[in-house]
Each structure stands twice: as structure tokens, then as C-alpha cells.
Amino acid sequence: MAPLRHWWIPENSRTIMALGMLTCAQADIDNRNRIYGSVVLSNFLRPAPPLECDKRSKQHHPMHLTFEETLKNTNIMLLMMGIPPCEETYPDGVIAAIRRNLGFISSFLLLSYTTFGELIYLLQMFEREVNFLEVTFQAPCIGYCIIAVLKMIILAGRRNMIAELVAMFRTKWSQAIVHDEHWKVCEDTMKPAIRVTSVTALVNVVMGISFTVLPIAEMIYHHYYTGSWNRQLAFNIWWPFDVLSGAKYFWFVYPMYVVIGFTGIIIHMAFDCLFCILAAHLCMHFRILEHNLTHVVEVETRWEDSNDGNMSRLQTTVVNHQALIGCSVFMQSVFGNALFVNFLGSSIIICIQAFMITTVSGYTLVKFILFILCFLIELLMLCAYGEDIVQSSEALINAAYGCQWYEESKPFHRTVLQIIHRSQQPVLLTAWKIWPIQMSTFSRILQASWSYFTLLKTVYGDN
Fold first, then answer.
1. b vs e for 436-455, b when ≥16 Cβ sit within 10 Å of the residue's Cβ?
2. Which helix (H) or strand (E) holds 12?
3. What is the C-alpha end-to-end distance of the chain, expressed in Å?
4. Collapsing DSSP states into helix, strand and coil, what is residue 431?
5. What does R_g of the chain's alpha carbons equal in angstroms?
6. pLDDT digits (tens, 9 = 90+) for 194-228
7. What is the value of pTM for the model shown?
């Protein structure tokens, strides 16, 4: 005989009863704080007991996405800069570390010289009479290189932290994904993330290379109609010799401009794609947690013989929830400072680029359109994945309330209420605890850039 259900209770009365049970559980909420307070980040690496239904359905499918595939394209971009894969720590010994990172050191020195060379050229511009347009042409390139150098410093200085973070997600990957529904959540989250980051990186690389080779197209066009060569460079760097004084100097230096442009765009994309892929991993685990929380009470055996099992599964969910929160704190410590400089610099650079677009023409106009598109796409991708973290962590509220807790024990009610309370504070990454990484920040950056742009147009628009 099927167990007695409360089908005879009116729907409004059942809702009042449910709210009353939650209110009673509120009185004992402090007794459950130890469930969250005593869990540390090490639980992220400790195997958690799987759901009983997961034990029955766990299986490996050869066509499923692997953890390595999620980081494959990001690691390729890192290797292009001479940076080892993101899960690799520094080897023991200074000599071994230098030998393993010779490519990275070369890229860092090249980009550092570019940054200082642009600053020296800017100072030399002030020693002679220059107009404001020449200064605004130089400033965005300096800002772009400064941000790129900072990202390289973050990747180098926090290499071991990044490797530890990746190891956490690798361990969690094998623990959390145990049946086909989990695999569906995984692939629905990670495959779009891989496509978005890969396409964004490819588009930015194409635009970056186009930015550096456009002067060649302009030179060919000018020579075709005038018969003379008008040597031009993609951006201005100080050199110890006059680059434009002869063809041998010019064609010796110009390929370095292409390499510098490629290096800058790749380091930007590698850093940003690494952040977005790790953010997608965090979102995926929150969605798997939401699925587990929704099914924490087994419908078939929901009565006394399963109360202990339901409570055990709920406590495992609490442990995993706290571990994911700890992982978000880890991500904040790795990426927060660099993202702050990125956001601050982008708001200023976008403003200057917009001002230049309204004052130039020809191939220079195309260059600055490509430049501003790179920054807009980069910011949009970062803010979109930050927003996804917020939404996926908030989704636990509805999952907890809808897990059919009302037929469980009183300790079960308290724990559900604790999950709801904690999930009401969504996981939110910030750029140096100033700018939350979400879509509202993207709109605020655009508003700030527009304000700076209108100020520049008012003051210097007629110059």
C-alpha cells in the first residue's frame, strides 16, 4: 500500500504549513552553523560520498568531454608565449625554472621593452610641439602594453597558485560528475565556454595582426598612386637608431612590430580565457550541486528507512557548497588585482579610442575601430562569465526550497534553511573589491567611457 499523502490538505494550507516549519527551523539555525563554519577548502580535495542513485548509474563514456579538453586551447595560447601549461608548477631549483621558462622570459622582456620604449617616445613628444591627437594616439598603446605586462607578472608570480586551483577543479571533476545527467550539465556548460573563448581569442588575434599589418597596406596603396614609399609603423616605440632613415632599418624592425602585436594580444587572451574557463568550471559545479540538491530526497523511499540517507546526502551537498565558495575565494586572490587594472585601464582606453575614431580617417580609422573592438569583446566576455557565477550560485535557493524537505526530519529542515540563507549571498568575484565582475559593471564602464569621451570632445574637439 502506498504511503499516505497529504492530498486532502488545501494548497494554501500546505504552503502555510511549509512556511511555519521553516520558521520553527529558524529558531535553531545557530546550531547548524558548525556545518558551514567547520568546513575548510581542503574538503574540495577530499572525496565526498556520492549519492546512492549515482553509485548505481556511474559509468564512463568514451565520447564525453575530458578535463584536459577544457583547458587545451588556453594551454596552447600559454605555450605560444613560452608559458608552461597552467596545471604545471615551477620545477625545483632556479636553473631548472629558468630553463623551463626561457620562452616566457623572452616574451616578457620584449613586451617590457615595448612598454618602456612607448613611454620614452611619449616623453620625447612633449619635448617638441605636439597636438593632442598625437598624444591620444600613443596613450592607448601604452595602456594596452602595461596591462599585458601586469598579466604576465600575475601568471608568473602566481603560477603555483593557478596550478593548485586547476588541480582542485581536476579532482572535483572526477568526484562530481558521476552519471549521465551530470555529464549533460557538464557539457551544456563547458562546451559553449570552450567555443566562446576560442572564437573570441581567434577574432582578437586576427584584429591584432590586422592592426600591425595595416600600415603595409597603406604604404603599398600610397606607392601605387604616388610612386614613392611613405614608411609607416603600427605604433611608436623609441629605438636607439632612426627606424625611418633607411629601408634596411625599417624592414629589420617592422617584423618585430608584428611579433610584439601578436605577443600582446595572445597574453591578453590567454589570461582572460583562463579566467573564463575556470569560471565556467565553477558554474558547472554549482549547477551539478543544484541538480543534486533538487534530488537529495529520493521519491521512491522517502520515509523512515531513507531519512538517514537523505540527511547524509544533504550534508554532502553542504560540504560541496562550502568547498565551491572557498574555490571562488581562491580565484579572487589570483585574478582580482589584474582585473581591476584591466577594467580601470579599459574605461580610459575605450574613451580615447572613441575620441580618435571621431577625428581620424582612412586606415587609421580602421586601426582604432579594431583596437576598441578588442577591448569591448574582452570586457564583455569577462563580465558575462562573472555574471554566470552569480546566477548559478543563486540558483541553489530554489533548488533547496524545492527538494521536498517538508516530509523530512527537523535537522533536515534546519540544514535546508541554512543552505537557503547562505545562497542568498551569491558568489561574486570582484576586481580589487571595487568592481563586481558582472554585466552591470560592463554597462558602468561604458557609461564612464562615454562621460570621458564627451569631456574630451568638449575640450579638444576643435583642435
1. bbbeebbeebbebbeebbee
2. helix 11-27
3. 88
4. strand
5. 28
6. 999 999 999 999 998 998 998 998 899 888 998 88
7. 0.85
